[in-house]
């Protein structure tokens, strides 16, 4: 069972690892999302009277609420668009037809897309955690972006 899931994930990875659109969207999401979420600390200086200060958005436990709300917009635009692109490019490049001709069932094709969706959701969750943790631990945006950029670069240069 796990070998088959690993096979489906590697098949999806091999199809889109050199696709410039997918790599650009992942890079935008990985590098721009922390900047948008964490730059609000410098932009928003005055908050309405019920909140004590703008630091409440970046202190535990309220950091999860704020970053979850603002990050959900980036997820819906970037990662949602990427999943739509991945599915529609299968049809336009005729790889869906080729997969079915070579023996992959429609159920397997759908399962591979579903697993890809869950992996992207896991990636977004790990990114939220890293952004929140590095912002709370270091207190600076530069370390957060540098750390996430190095993580992206090490993943990109890794060979499978």
Molecular structure report:
The protein has 160 residues and is mainly α. It has one domain. The model has no long low-confidence stretch (mean pLDDT 77).
Estimate the mean pLDDT confidence. Answer: 77
| Class from helix and strand fractions | mainly alpha
Q: Report the span from N to C terminus.
A: 21 Å
Uncertain residue ranges: none
Shape verdict: elongated
Q: How many separate domains make up the residues?
A: 1
Radius of gyration: 19 Å
Main sheet specs: none
Order of helices and strands: HHHHHH
Report strand %: under 5%
Helix fraction by DSSP (H/I, runs of at least 4):
over 70%
Sequence-ordered SSE layout with sheet pairings:
Layout: H1 2-16, H2 20-43, H3 63-92, H4 95-101, H5 106-138, H6 141-157
Helix pairs in contact: 1-5, 2-3, 2-6, 3-5, 5-6
Outline of this structure?
With 160 residues, the chain is mainly α.
Keywords:
160 residues; mainly alpha; 6 helices
């Amino acid at each position: 069972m796990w070998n088959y899931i690993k096979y489906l994930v590697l098949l999806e990875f091999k199809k889109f690892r050199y696709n410039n659109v997918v790599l650009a969207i992942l890079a935008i999401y990985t590098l721009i999302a922390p900047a948008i979420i964490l730059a609000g600390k410098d932009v928003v200086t005055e908050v309405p009277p019920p909140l004590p200060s703008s630091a409440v958005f970046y202190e535990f436990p309220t950091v999860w609420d704020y970053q979850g709300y603002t990050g959900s917009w980036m997820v819906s635009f970037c990662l949602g668009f990427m999943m739509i692109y991945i599915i529609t490019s299968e049809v336009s490049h005729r790889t869906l037809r080729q997969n079915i001709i070579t023996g992959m069932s429609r159920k397997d094709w759908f399962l591979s897309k579903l697993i890809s969706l869950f992996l992207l959701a896991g990636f977004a969750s790990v990114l939220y955690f890293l952004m929140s943790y590095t912002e709370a631990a270091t207190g600076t945006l530069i370390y957060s972006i540098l750390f996430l950029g190095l993580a992206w670069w090490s993943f990109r240069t890794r060979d499978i």
